[in-house]
Amino acid sequence: MFGKRCSLCGEKLNSRGICTECGLDNSKSDKNYRINRSDCDGMPLTHVHEEKEKHRPDRKADHREINHKETNHKKRDYGKQGYRMNESDMTGKKRRKHVQTPDITNRRRPLKIVILAIIVIAVLGNLYEEHKYDIEYAIGDAVQGVFQDTGDQKTNDTDKTDYDHYQYVTREIPKEGERADYELSSGNYVAGVEIPEGIYTVTPKDDYDAVQIDDPENSIYLYEYTEGKKDKIEDIRLYKGAHLTLKCKTTVKLHTDNAQDVEAMETAGQSNPLTESVDIKGQKTLTAGRDLEPGIYDLRRVSGAGNVDIIIYSDEKEEINSWSQGLSEDGIDGETFHYLVIPENATLEVSEDLKIRLTPSKQIASTDYYGFYNR
């Protein structure tokens, strides 16, 4: 390679034909190199260069596409929240649109009203069952008072009209008779057997002591109660055979100045065929004729508090009557009930926390236990 020079810079070449100055490999053909050449070689000197149109990316379009993707991403992220991001407005600021959340409280309000109504109905139902007959007699008196001819009503000292419970009576009780006083507790009393026929005044010891008369023979159906210890119920006419029912916390006093046939009461009734007492405790339902003897008992609370419910059935197993009373130490109906009639097939249910004792009544009017309710 001695004597040869580099075709590019003119310097010496080494033994492999590579320039010691610029490093060009002169061993290759000059065709592989474009030295001092351009795209204009071979063209006229007066030719004009024409610039090719270059492609410029649409940056605005790219930005719109990017913003669109970001907006969709934000919508997906905030779609479950109460606020959603809208696309940019002309000012470039983000606006929030409030999405109203459904008011769950308003949806629950009708349900609360329904539950409250059910509770009120249940409470009123229990009160009605407990004082069923008291309410029925009170309503009966009110209805009879509405339809009563005003010409047959008598006026009291306050010029108010009262219903005449004795308007259908065909026999008057004689004004002459014996003076008699009784102090009785809650229970049933048959006039002419345990208390003589006469016209009575009832004096209570407690508020809301009640007096009820059931006398179908003389068409007398009366229910009265007292308001206050000084209150009195006057003109209570008891005809022979009438059923007097008292409900009081302790006892009430009865006074009459014309008691009839007092001595005859000693032989008017009969001895009770029952001799055995029955103790009943806690949430039990007994059937007369199977679990206890049918008959007439005196009921007494031994311990606890609760209700005693009796349902009377006919021979065909149809319900014909019922009786219920609450027993407690301070209850308005007291702790005892005299002359409780329990016919065959009647069911007796006692509350869970209550213990009672049934003792046969000493003297009774009849052993026709169904007849006591079917009058």
The gist of it:
With 375 residues, the protein is α+β, with helices and mostly antiparallel strands. Helix content is 19%, strand content 31%. It has a four-stranded antiparallel β-sheet with strand order 5-12-7-10, with no helix packed on it. Strands 6-11-8-9 form a four-stranded antiparallel β-sheet, covered by helices on one side.
Describe it for me?
It is a single chain. The protein is of the alpha+beta class and 375 residues long. It has five helices and 22 strands. The protein has helices at 59-78, 104-130, 132-147, 265-268, 369-373; strands spanning 83-85, 96-98, 154-155, 161-162, 178-184, 187-190, 198-203, 210-215, 220-225, 233-238, 243-247, 252-259, 270-271, 278-281, 284-287, 295-304, 306-313, 319-327, 336-342, 347-350, 354-360, 363-364. Strands 5-12-7-10 form a four-stranded antiparallel sheet, with no helix packed on it. A hairpin with a 5-residue loop joins strand 3 (154-155) and strand 4. The N and C termini lie far apart (155 Å). Residues 73-99 and 149-160 have low confidence and may be disordered. Residues 49-74, 82-101 are annotated as: Disordered. Residues 49-70 have a biased composition (Basic and acidic residues).
